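TEACHING EXERCISE
Course module: macromolecular assemblies
Task: Read the component lines below, then compare them to the predicted structure of the full complex.
Student: A.B.
Group: 4
Components provided:
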Amino acid sequence: MRFIVPFTLLALIAMPVTADELGTALETLKSAKVDGSNSRQLAEAFKVAAAAEISQVPRILSAMPTDDPLVQNWIRNAADAALANAEADGGEIPVEMLRDYLLDTKHPPRARRVAYEWLKKGDSVAASQLLPEFYNDANLELRYDAVATLIDESNNLDDDAKRTELLKLAFASARDASQLSTCATALEQLGVEVDIVEQLGYITTWQIIGPFDNVKSIGFDAVYPPEQSFDNEGQYDGKSGEVKWIEVTSDAPMGVVDLAEPFDNEKGAVAYAYATVESPEDYKANLRYTSHNATKLWLNGKLVAENNVYHSGGEGDQYIVPVTLKQGENEILLKVCQNEQSEPWAQSWEFALRVCDPLGGKLRKVE
Amino acid sequence: MRYTLAFLLLTTTVAVAEPPSGWLEFRGAGGTSAVPAGDIPVEWDVDSGKNVAWRADLPGRGVSSPIVVDGRVIVTASDGLDRTKLHVLAFDTESGRQLWHRQSWATGRTQCHPTSANAAPTPASDGERIYAFYSSNDLICYDLDGNLLWYRGLVLDHPRLGNDVGMSSSPVVGDGVVVVMCECQGDSFAAGFDCQSGETLWQVKRPPGSNWASPVIAQFPLDGKRVPSVLLQGDDGLHVYALANGKPLWSNPGIKGASIPSAAAFADLLLVPGDGLTAISMSSSREPQVMWSNDSMKPGNPSPLMTGDGVCVISRAGVIMLADPATGETTSKKRIGGSYWATPVAVGSLLYALDDRGNMNVIDLSQGGDIVAKNSFGDDEETLGSPAVAGNAIYVRSHKHLWKIAKTND
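Instructor-supplied answer key:
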């Protein structure tokens, strides 16, 4: 009799996670809170999901939302743990199941990526054969790897026409600047001109005005007339005299607009840049921009981003701002503040801004 | 000359004759970067395997240090598109076998300098849990078996947090609180989180500006008591907060801290890197006292450490300097060359100084800093993470590999 309790416990431990138990656990994981206030419940739910049988992994993966990174990570960790635990118990990675899951594009993009990574671990050949199909995938990681295979494949071709075809496909599909650059360089060698700036949706023609006062960095919070309304004919009191809007067009790489040259390397100064984009309908989009200077960004008069950060950044897409473009004309206003630092690395006064879809591709319907 | 004070400090801090079995945070407990003794090889060869107990592959880059807890080596790494993939791996200390591997996606900014990685901060452990932290300000807690206990994406409630050369301040843990120091232009703060739940226990504002230094936990003297505290350094001075609730306890704006090398606490001695090096005695029961400052003892990127042969720093020019811990007087300087990000570790009088190019210089501090061995981990290895010492072994990571260096009897 004295062994009954331990044996009962062992039996309970070995019992598979039921569908109901898993369902409850997944619902708990999906309730993850940013402030960590329900972590204890989540940790218990994690252990239930991690103990699930391998056949239940697709259900775990499908609990992954498309837009909540915190929950995505709880689900991903649970799926990884379930697969790893099953593997440690002597099970095989369920290659066919993962393959089917991956190929069904109705599944959450990041969940499909997890399926791909485990498929690659279980059958790298099968994974690599499937990969080129994902060049236009909604999951950027799959897309990146697929584009990389297209580029690799093009490098192994002797036929220039076929190389050009593959590279054009890769260029059209890539969302990563370095891949676009690789494609553009290779295509140029084949006599094909492509435009990375246009492909990424950078705005290159702007109305700019300045300088306004930013001595002692007062300008970030100061409200100068361009913030109140746009008047192309407007003339205002600037930092050291009357200022008016001028048009500039950038032909620099990655759409960079220099403000130092038109404003004579003024230090302690604020400039504004204004542009419009047409949208045929309401669109969920991103405004993505980079600047070494403190910035504020408005869309249609609404402040959508402010970053009081100087002399930082370098890569593209330093700031990603989800917005909704309205049907018709949309006004973009960017305030770019230069401070008074004298170090050589603190002289840059510039920005680059693009309008793109949430995956980083140019909005085709935007003019 | 060996310093009695230094030895006493070390033995007070690490009251063991053997190296500790664990190395639970960046630079070990209190940021000491030192153990009083250990049977650790002076020479090894990664090609022949001599004194290389094992080598493991890593799935991504990292400049974080390995930590060692309860028979496991824990390493973080990052890779993937835009450095968004976050890895935590556990390896068996004896065999090098991978015990578990967990992955997440960064919820915050992932930009960083090309030489660095999202996996820049070193994880910390209290012996029960692992607190992995990243430049993207993801703070993730696992138990020792890889079960996810809690996840805080600090950018989710601090959207302006981050900088574009990467953040690297490592967490520290004590008395049930894990502390992070997140300092940048956009949103600067330090915060303490409940080790069990990850809930925020306290948060204090910090000056806007980049700071890559790490906090230090110490028993701080105040009004006749010892208060578990966390010390934060910055160019606005040295500030001390109660570990339990973040209450400000003490500050000295005159002790301006560096933004890369971190302070280190050795029992009653606190070393604060700044324009030079400042030593603070915490032996008084009332409040700390500045013992000395030495402008010439200015560390480069590695943090200062205490050895039995004196206070030790590596300068930006690759000069190893020793100072008398009682007076601060510089007692020796020896140029060894090289570029260093990793803080060296001292095992007795031997200093293991790992340069950025995969070379571990073993230096005898008792002989004025002579190099007694130079061991390469490979021509194409970049080694920016500080080594860990535990159980008569040194653990070293590059962007690609993790090594256990221990005597192999061959």
